[in-house]
Design goal:
Elements: H1 6-9, H2 30-56, E1 60-65, E2 75-82, E3 92-99, H3 106-110, H4 114-118, H5 144-147, E4 161-166, E5 179-184, H6 193-196, H7 204-207, H8 212-219, E6 227-234, H9 236-239, H10 249-257, E7 261-269, E8 275-281, H11 289-320, H12 325-333, H13 335-338, H14 344-350, H15 353-366
Antiparallel strand pairs: 1-8, 2-7, 3-6, 3-8, 4-5, 4-7
Length: about 375
């Protein structure tokens, strides 16, 4: 026999029993649900419209180049990227894109020495015990991550310059001469602030390495086998060299939509792994080109789903009408039965005659069989 019979607590208002805690049983109104669904759909559709608007004016360009054969002498190749929707008033970011290169293997990710990277001397005793030094390399970090460093150079030495070409839209009455300008890639300020400013990640020895920010970007291993990593950037101040009376910001943007803006890279092809590409893009508040586009698509889908659900509730509400007052009366009169997680049929089967009589009355008033 249970410690407390059903009769002893049936109909009680004591909050000790969860069956009588009315706040545990949500009873939302249909109008409230419809309002929330419509509001959610409007919010997501607004986000989608804004993201599509930003994405339609966001600069993007990509070009791939071949991976050198293993053991061959590094060769310099010319890679031309056609830049679409180019805005000279925004920074332009240069990424190298790798496919089929796995940085997410456990042995690869863990093959470095944190103490060595934080030290003032790479060769101090005991600092590289977590990874192999790898040959006769001195004054450099140990481990597979650093040893597999992306070492292609995407610009001409010694000034790290690339060539911007703007063809211009010429007519017989208004001839426009093509504009060709060499601009240097800025490779500073590309690492995370925690990597470039704080001493928690890298010490004095690491910061003394040439291109230490590019190395810090590579040391942040990617979770997928296809990824982009930041190589450098161009600032709006540099793009002032592109603008003239015949090549204004508006005409350059129009020319880029017609495929008239190209960027030529002189690539020293050293890195022998994966499929490689150069990516140029400008950012929005939502991120890069594909991030903004994907957010717009997902927001559209979610907004449409919420709108369809709201319409479904509206049709049901107009067809069936609001919930009857009898239902609310039953809930208030028999809270222990209607709010309980125990099935009515189970109570009717196990309870005494008083319980079964009450259950039958509740079913009759609620229209249940």
């Amino acid at each position: 026999m249970p410690l407390l019979s059903v009769n002893s607590w049936f109909g009680t208002k004591s909050p000790f029993f969860t069956q009588t805690m009315r706040h545990c049983v949500p009873n939302p109104e249909v109008i409230l649900i419809m309002s929330l669904l419509f509001a959610g759909s409007i919010i997501f559709l607004i986000i989608s419209a804004v993201a599509f608007s930003f994405n339609s004016t966001q600069a993007y360009g990509i070009a791939s180049y071949d991976t050198p054969s293993t053991g061959t002498t590094p060769q310099t190749v010319s890679v031309t990227v056609t830049l679409e929707r180019f805005n000279v008033d925004k920074p332009l970011y240069v990424y190298y894109h790798l496919q089929d290169f796995h940085q997410n293997v456990r042995y690869y990710v863990s093959n470095f020495s944190r103490k060595q990277l934080q030290s003032d001397n790479f060769n101090a005793a005991g600092l590289n015990k977590d990874c192999n030094k790898g040959g006769a390399v001195v004054n450099e970090p140990c481990g597979l991550i650093y040893q597999s460093l992306f070492n292609d150079t995407l610009a001409s030495a010694p000034n790290n310059e690339v060539t911007f070409s703007i063809s211009g839209a010429s007519t017989s009455s208004n001839p426009v001469q093509p504009k060709v300008v060499k601009l240097a890639i800025n490779m500073t300020g590309i690492a995370w602030k925690e990597d470039s400013k704080s001493t928690k990640m890298y010490g004095t020895a690491f910061r003394a390495l040439p291109n230490n920010e590019s190395i810090a970007v590579w040391m942040r291993t990617a979770p997928l086998s296809t990824f982009d990593k930041l190589y450098g950037r161009f600032t709006p101040e540099q793009f002032k060299a592109l603008t003239t009376d015949s090549h204004t910001a508006e005409t350059i943007f129009y020319d880029s939509q017609m495929g008239g803006v190209t960027v030529e890279f002189s690539v020293t092809n050293n890195f022998p792994y994966g499929k490689k590409s150069i990516v140029l893009q400008q950012m929005t508040v939502f991120g890069g080109y594909y991030e903004t586009r994907n957010l717009a698509i997902l927001s559209t889908i979610l907004g449409c789903i919420l709108f369809i659900c709201a319409l479904t509730f509206l049709v049901i509400f107009l067809e069936r009408g609001p919930r009857s007052a009898k239902y609310k009366t039953v809930l208030e009169q028999y809270p222990i039965v209607t709010n309980s997680s125990i099935l009515l049929s189970e109570l009717e089967r196990t309870g005494d005659e008083k319980v079964r009589r009450t259950i039958r009355q509740v079913k009759a008033e609620m229209g249940l069989k």
